[in-house]
Amino acid sequence: xxxxxxxxxxxxxxxxxxxxxxxxxxTVHATDRGIDSVQVKDRxxxxxxxQELLTKIQAARAVxxxxxxxxxxxxxxxxxxGSTAAAEKVDPETWTDIxxxxxEYMIRPIYKYEGTVPRLMGDAILAFFGAxxxxxxxxxxxxxxxxxxxxxxxxxxxxxRLKYGIEFALRVGINTGLVVVGAIxxxxxxxxxxxxxxxNLAARMEQxxxxxxxxxxxxxxxxxxxxxxFEALGEVEVKGKAAPIKTYRPLGVKKSQGNLRGLEGLTSxxxxxxxxxxxxxxQVEQLKIGAGAFVSVIGEAGLGKSTLIAxxxxxxxESGIVWLRGDALSYARxxxxxxxxxxxxxxxxxxxxxxxxxxxxxxxxxxxxxxLPGGDIPFLEALLxxxxxxxxxxxxxxxxxxxxxxxxxxxxxxxCGVAKEGPLVIVFDDLHWADAASLNLLFSVADLTDAxxxxxxxxxxxxxxxxxxxxxxxxxxxxxxQYHSLFLEPLPDEQTDVLLTNLLGVNxxxxxxxxxxxxxxxxxPFFIEELIRSLIETNQIVRENSHWRAVNxxxxxxxxxxxxxxxxARIDRLPELTKxxxxxxxxxxxxxxxxxxxxxxxxxxxxxxQIQYLKEASLVEPFREEYMFRHVLIQEAAYDSIxxxxxxxxxxxxAETLEQLHSNRLEEFAPLIAYHFYSGQDPxxxxxxxxxxxxxxxxxxxxxxxxxxxxxxxxxxxxxxDNLQIASIFTQLGHVLELLGHHQRALATYDEMLAHGRSxxxxxxxxxxxxxxxxxxxxxxxxxxxxxxEQMLIQxxxxxx
Length: 801
Fold this sequence. Notes:
Blueprint lengths: L50 H13 L5 E13 L1 H5 L4 H21 L3 E6 L2 E6 L8 H27 L4 E16 L5 E5 L3 H11 L4 E5 H7 L3 E9 L8 E9 L20 H15 L4 E6 L6 H11 L6 E6 L10 H10 L8 H14 L7 H8 L4 H7 L4 H21 L3 E6 L6 H10 L8 E7 L6 H13 L3 E5 L5 H12 L6 H11 L3 H13 L3 E4 L2 E4 L10 H12 L3 H13 L2 E2 L1 H8 L5 H10 L3 E4 L2 E4 L2 H9 L3 H18 L4 H14 L5 H14 L3 H17 L4 H17 L3 H17 L3 H16 L7 H15 L1
Parallel strand pairs: 4-6, 9-12, 9-13, 10-11, 11-12
Antiparallel strand pairs: 1-3, 1-4, 2-3, 4-5, 6-8, 7-8, 14-15, 16-18, 17-18
Helix pairs in contact: 3-4, 7-8, 11-12, 11-13, 14-15, 17-18, 19-23, 20-21, 20-22, 20-23, 21-24, 24-25, 25-26, 26-27, 27-28, 28-29, 28-30, 29-30, 30-31
């Protein structure tokens, strides 16, 4: 019996896959947790909920940390087309049994890709990918689940047609958007409410999808386009939407998958990695004369590990070296030897659509060429999950460590045989997601580099909680002199600027916009690309001939969904209490005082350990007398996940805490206190904005003064301050805008001041506004107009008379 999860052959009577533990024979029909009004038969689908998900839910419930969060997630609706007509043809009890079977096929792929099923609605389910656990590739997981739902239901639908004479089909709709995650209930069901129309769009995709197909919105399509073959379906009218929604139908996984990295039409040579590329080229040169090596390339997501290896391969294309690559995938960690399967299949030129028999034939041919002992072939077939009946009998004769040892020996022999044909480089990407069996096998064959023309290159993140971290250190101790380690750090500002110039042209963006990108990207090439993509997609920068320019100087950055996935997944790996501390710190700001944070979280004994955990996770670091987020976008991702009403409450508490801590230094901390009271929608911000604005004027920090007076004016008008104070703030704001050379904005401020004076019948305010306008028109600037200046003065005289 072939396992539908990992494709391993199992004995016919097996209930569970001997490779990945997937249930093979259980007649599970629905879970009693998260599914309404469905009877459970034989076993609960709780068995299929990933352990990480169960742990996360239980931890979240324990600390009440999931009372509410904002998240961009991918939603999947699936319903039964033709269920009403079908139900009329059979007894209600029979239809219940049929629906239980349908739900099984709907739900299995959802749990396989670590989605959640928050509710069942009649003959439909709603699934979320990205809550409570976020993954970098949640949209991709949702589309994979949708395709597997449609593929898996075919045999069952045919069985029902033959048995009962009724027909049905499933429709799947998918959308990616913003939702609010609600409170966790007493069981495993979680309630969710969408902000805006994100869920409505997903439902609309399902309603308009053709039976037996999957349909996605453009928001999802943009995030998964490199990984699937798509058919463009045109536009769909959606109620409440001003414009029709572009829709797409995924047809299947691409044979040659692309990459979300990179900007179409924008390229750059490798920047800032010359030393690392030189070391790698050194190892390749040594490989050419028969010397092996083991190289780990370690760096956070987006720092250019894959780009570095791509450049290495490109520069050695004519060397006669064989390059094999295995990609560990986050959703394939339950599949044993997943990256090794890719590597061996590449080495025998096996394609995805090859039958098991064709794969076995190709494997046997290569093994014969490598003079590999025939007794090892059954174990290689087992690793590839393509065993014949004869091979399966051989493999099942070994159990436990004996089986593992035979597989290790087979792979060692195979690699030695391939390496004899020519120098060999084996690349493992995203090793931090590799399954345990793959890591153990890598450790077992690593020492081949001592005697074979073989180089292993392993790319991974510095995640000390991942099994790959310990595995790499054990391999280092094992191979010793053959081991080399490369750590990729963020690019310095000057190299980031070079990358920007390469991408956008020498005469590209203004210094102001470039500086904003450099600051926010913080030396991460992937972040730079995604911030540029965001500006292009929102038409804030536009191409002019050979370069790009900003439409305005005040570009607005919102965190792109690609970065939300990367950063959200990293935050979600934290224990719930630690995540809670991180979110509170994010409200304080990029840098934060531990005294304020401790009071905000209400933690005592465990507070220091939470901060230590965040340091070890490389999310925060000491900064002068405070702490700071290692990356501003991590802070933004954590901040964006907090409900707006909760943020307001936290900002207010932070301002009050700062007042208490710095009661004798209020002028010094006035800007910070003002910001938090203002963000907390508390009128006490007026006092501190005025204090901070006046101090900024004394220091000739006019840009900062304009911000403070602008906020002060907004709050004063909103809360009905007396007219004299409002007039004074108008005058202060207009004056600093003039000093900044922003005469148009200053004029608009005085116009507003004049209108306010007229509405309140305050002649003094009107007089001051007219005099200020006359002054602007009288000076030599772009707005100089002597006639208008004279007109303003005449109006002022009329009022004062």
